[in-house]
Amino acid sequence: MLIVNTIEQLRLFLTAARAEGNSIGLVPTMGALHEGHASLVERSVRENGTTVVSVFVNPTQFNDKGDLERYPRTLEADCCLLEKLEVDCVFAPSVEEVYPEPDTRIFDFAPLDKVMEGIYRPGHFNGVAQIVSKLFMFVEPDRAYFGEKDFQQLAIIREMVRQLSFNLEIIGCPIVREQDGLALSSRNALLTNEQRHTALAISKSLFSSVKYAKEHTLIETKQMVEAAIAATEGLELEYYEIVDGNTLQPVTAWTDTDYIVGCITVYCGKVRLIDNIRYK
Fold first, then answer.
1. What's 186-274's CATH class?
2. Does the pLDDT of residue 147 top 90, yes or no?
3. Is the full-model pTM beyond 0.90?
């Protein structure tokens, strides 16, 4: 497995890979890798002749400097895992390599970026679009893999690909959970043992709501989840929205659309956790 830190090294590697007729799969990450990332990597390795994994904590998508500083960085361990997964190349650039000068591009993904994370993390998706579009330009992959846990992000990346006319396939991969239901996240590493136990209330409330929804209105289901989180000491709900899975706009009745997803963000102490569940 090759580890490169510069765009020039990356492109030399990719030129050789393409010369051998290999398709290129890209898995963009911010490191602190877990089994959720591994599932994306494994799929890319299966479906492509060459797999590149980027490991880069992107500063432009953090609107909270403290959150950026707290984000776990475990490059050595990440590379050990990726080598076991038979990744061909790890791209681990510096901030200066990716942003030799400020990226002043402004994206508009309305209405996708005007709800949920777009409200609570202003500028976040613009930063995501900046880094992901740069990675697509650096790597020029045939396929790129993203987890469905970041449901809104996945929708926005698909829209960015459409707007910028990138010639690649975006592949969304299912949420990977611990055996007890907790959605895997790099941020889980920041939880104490007690907080991790507390955080289980998030997935439990979502799973319970699917059964609850069969005999209750959408509004009642939303209120049930909100009440479950409010009743759990140590958790603070930022939002819970039940939305059209295509437009990300809130819906008020189960009959509004045939694709309905519940998206939640909760603080467990200072750790911000997201999850989602599909209702139909």
1. alpha beta
2. yes
3. yes
